Amino acid sequence: MAESLYVHVPFCTSICYYCDFAHVVYQKDLVRKWLDALAFQLHHTAINPKLKTIYVGGGTPGCLDADELETLLQMLDPYRRYVQEYTLECNPESVTAEKAALLVKHGINRVSMGMQSADDRLLTAIGRRHTFADTKNAVSILKQAGIHNISLDLMYSLPQQTMADLQDSIAKAIGLQPTHLSLYSLTIEKNTVFGRKGITPLDEDTEADMYEYICRELPRYGYRQYEISNFCLDGCESKHNLAYWHYDDFYGISCGASGKEGLLRYDNEKNLMRYLQNPLQRHEIPLSRQDAQFEMIMMSLRLKQGLDLSAYQRRFHHAYEEDYGLKTEALIKRGWLEEKDGYVRCSEKGYEICNTVLEELMPEEE
């Protein structure tokens, strides 16, 4: 049975210009109806009572008011008895002492916060409603409440962002002493505000220079890169996200959430109004064994540690070498992959071109 649960909160106070996730602008009456639908879905879903991780994401879970947030967390209380890591996403401007106390009361021990930049000018340009001062204040409130496992999200390759801007944001983020940092390059989907306006990220060379700087700079302060976009202090990896990268099963609950159970992936209804009418409706995607094998490789090679060969064999009752041995051997000769201590991983050179490595490993179309 899955040991991880993801719950999607499909509401935001406002819509960031780059965002393509399932969300609607916060409306109190819709939140009430959504909470009722969520309760119905939870009641009719068989969830492992011994979960190890719960992640409440969005959208913006922190945009719920204190009463709504408490209602949500009360629904999840029955599932947290054995949970080791319980994360909630928030934006800096939504953090209050009252909400922080609620998080602690209901067992949340990790917060992932969307800082994005320390440059207030850039924050406005991408549609954020907070300032860097709000981020500092939010981190202080959370730590005073007793939540010290804090992850900060930052973005790079933003329109008009310079290397100096990025360096300043990283320095200020490190100064807040988070346990975890996630750094994402801007990608623009056609149905976002940026997409509709024809806004583009920075050129590829500048983006590559920014990524290389990130990878050099963060380890100097104790933040070890353990995944393409993620860095942490020792022992502070995201346990929940590791379940995704290890290709473990996980539950997806609520409008817009996805999940995986064995050879089945599913997407819950993304349209909020249709979800309210039928919270159990979902789109199921059956996977062939070959699909699942490649997906496990694709997710695992994002990790510095790489693919656990024994885990692959346990899951598929097949040795990795039988399925991908020839392609892997060719990539090892090119210096893009390496096999060591029971893992296949990208080399330093291969890690920089991980997507290209995956294209080389992709199964031939039948």
Give the tally of β-strands: 17
The dominant shape is globular
What Rg do the Cα atoms give?
21 Å
Helical amount among residues, as a percent range? 40-55%
Largest sheet: 9 strands, mixed
Please indicate the percent range of residues in DSSP E strands (runs of 2 or more).
15-25%
Provide mean pLDDT, rounded: 93
For this structure, the CATH topology of the largest domain is TIM Barrel
CATH homolog superfamily of the largest domain = Aldolase class I
Number of domains as seen in the coordinates: 2
Question: Strand order across the biggest sheet?
Answer: 9-10-8-7-6-5-4-1-11
Low-pLDDT residue spans: none
For the record, the CATH class of the largest domain is: Alpha Beta
> Which structural class fits the helix and strand makeup?
alpha/beta
Number of helices: 15
- CATH structural architecture of the largest domain: Alpha-Beta Barrel
Distance between the termini: 32 Å
Explain the overall architecture:
With 366 residues, this protein is α/β, with parallel strands linked by helices. It has two domains: 4-244, Alpha-Beta Barrel (TIM Barrel), CATH 3.20.20; 304-366, no CATH class. Helices cover 40% and strands 21% of the residues. The protein is built from 15 helices and 17 strands. The chain has helices spanning 28-43, 66-76, 97-105, 120-125, 132-145, 163-175, 193-197, 204-217, 239-245, 272-277, 289-300, 309-316, 320-333, 348-352, 354-361; strands at 4-9, 11-12, 24-25, 53-58, 85-90, 110-116, 150-156, 180-185, 224-227, 230-232, 251-253, 258-261, 264-268, 282-286, 307-308, 337-340, 343-346. The chain has a nine-stranded mixed β-sheet, sandwiched between helices. A three-stranded antiparallel β-sheet has the order 12-13-14, with no helix packed on it. The protein has a three-stranded antiparallel β-sheet with strand order 15-17-16. α1 (28-43) runs parallel beside α2 (66-76), α2 runs parallel beside α3 (97-105) and α6 (163-175) packs parallel to α8. The radius of gyration is 21 Å and the shape is globular. The model has no long low-confidence stretch (mean pLDDT 93).
